[in-house]
Amino acid sequence: MVAGRENGAARKTLLSTVEAPPRALSPAAERLRARFDGSPLGDRVEVRDLDLPTVEVAPDDWPAVARFLRDDPECRYDLFIDLAGVDNAKRPGRPTRFEAVFHLHSVTRDEHVRAKVLLPDGAEPRLPSVVEVWPAANWFEREAYDLFGFDFPGHPNQRRLLCHDAFVGHALRKDYSPGQRWFFAEEDLRMPAWAMDTEEKAGHFETQTISIGPSHPATHGIVHLVARLNGERITRAETQIGYMHRCFEKMSETHTWNQVIPYCDRLNYVSAMINGVGYVRTVEKMLGVEIPDRGRLARTILSEFSRIMDHCVNIGTNLVDIGGLTNFWYLYQPRESIYGLLEACCGARLTVSYVRVGGLAIDVPEDFVARSRALLESIPKFVDDVERLVTRNRIVRNRLGGTGVVSKEQAIAWGFTGPMLRASGVAYDVRRSRPYDFYDRFDWDVPIATDGDNFARYLVRIEEIRQSLKIIRQALDGLPEGPVIGKVPRLLRPAAGETYHAIESPKGEIGFFIVSDGSARPYRLKIRAPSRWTATPASSATLRIARKSSTSITVPPACPLVFSRQTRSTISTSYGSSGSRAART
Amino acid sequence: MPLFGKGKALPAHDSSAAGGPADFLTTRLDTMVAWARSNSLWPLPFATACCGIEFMSVVSSHYDLSRFGAEVVRFSPRQADLLIVAGTVVDKLGPTLRKIYDQMPEPKWVISMGVCASSGGFYRAYHVTQGIDEIVPVDVYVPGCPPTPEQLMYGILELQRKIRAGEKSRDRRSAASGEGSRFVWSPGERTAPPGKPS
Hints:
heterodimer; A: 585 residues; Beta Polymerase, domain 2; Cytochrome-c3 Hydrogenase, chain B; 5-stranded mixed sheet; 3-stranded antiparallel sheet; globular; B: 198 residues; alpha/beta; Rossmann fold; 4-stranded parallel sheet; 30% helix
């Protein structure tokens, strides 16, 4: 099988990277090497070939290399994916104790690259901030400061992101005890400095600073938005998070490879299955395990059902916020029937813990195909009804259309992925650009919209539900008999090395960067959360959330929704004008 | 021998027989009030994590919490008398939870939904509160990760039973001493650092 060969190759790569002797580079890494050789930076970077092309660089050279990686026409790594700190204190043989590992993506060339900044020993770990190169790096650098104590000179707002303000020490360092808590009281809560001084002058008579959250009816999940309002407009805002920091990464370091799976389910509990698939796929890639087709397809089917559930919640809660409670309750019915299917498979509704390294824990029930087909019959009716109620509704159009507009350039700069990025006109979907499982064999489309507003995001999600149904139908047709789990040793010990693997979650790219030291537990596990970063803009810029004027009621022109069959050839169709479905390529 | 109470059928009302036994009942005012309160709980969902999603299932049409008279979900603590803490509470959120609890008018009850809220669950970690009873007194603990909707309903029925019986764990905890709430600690009693912070 093709994927099996890939896994084998990946394993060989990993085994050989422990000592990392100079070897022949892969074409991608070779090209990168050639680009750097042709630039003044050539002798200051080391290009390696791990599971991704990897650039190693010293902290002083990092800003120049970062700019080169973003701007060079042959690189163009413009989408910031991830920043992971690594503490090598218990991993001997590494050149330095601390490493900052960046993952970047090129939208134009559809490729990932890794950049490693080795922080010299003997001083405080320090590397220049690259917020000016990639604005998305803002919160990642704060996270690394919080959990590793990396210092980022030049960062506009370097303070803790996740842990509370009375926290002492840096939790993900290897010498920090996993269970050490610190007392936090209300007076320790630090608000942004600008929120403290009042801004009262002529023309600003309505200005007020309010705290939205952490417990607020409109916060689905707990987020804290400190906002300054001038009438209905937010003139300045800062998002505070960390109210749900449950120490997943530290916990995974204290559990065996298989014990991490239940923690993964609780990362995005609205579609728990998909996180587990992302994690075990990464471990499978490290181990070179072959997954039987039945297990792989069953995973795909349940993942796509989970995607539908997730979109149902997203659309439903969005409509609740603008006063449409009906859809929320209505969309819960397909969710309940999907819960029924998951419960029949594994016994749990929400946090399934169903995947295992190599496949699935147990086989799907006998009536799995029949039940799934029944769901395929019933779900479209709900989607159609919601669309009939919402898509042409002028109240919805007015509330969602033209609000929260994010342009294509902004979306890339802020590191959006998933439906948020696709609603801004970028057809980046991990299932399409780096297909895993059988996504390259299914016939499906990547819907994108170009307006970049809330309404476009709604349209993209609705269409993704239909595409998921299409994928499930094909997967059910091809579901073979046979085992659901491959041959996997009882005690997992992936070879020492590091790997990054990402899949498409309903909210965007969910990536796992895992460092193994060859033991029974992950040495370091960094998750690239898909949607946390979409809250960054509210921190760094003024994003218009309320409409400028609520008096003019005009239905905006039909929002163009575009389908991308291949990632780069797009055909635009008008959407929703006649009530018929859009023509597809 | 009370005419009204658990297991007792109320006398049938007969409008033709004026002055008959159906025109009055004898009970204690406390019992009557507790009966009314137990059947009109207004929950405030302090939904933080996975359990919050299951709570949404409980109030939505399939499980329909209104069958038990507890469906009027209020997001303002001043309008609620039942705090359902659904999901993990981390240390950063502790003061918020306490503030919301303090803002609720008496009488008030707390349900801890799920193992994270009850004990920290499997997050034995540096940023997770090991049970919300460090912060607020709890009346009913509902186990599960997350609890199924049936489990939460059972928890609410148990709470109704407690209210009707006049029990309140909060009386014992907070009235006797300040124990149980970590917010009565003096600032000098904070956790000592584990040696030199790195």
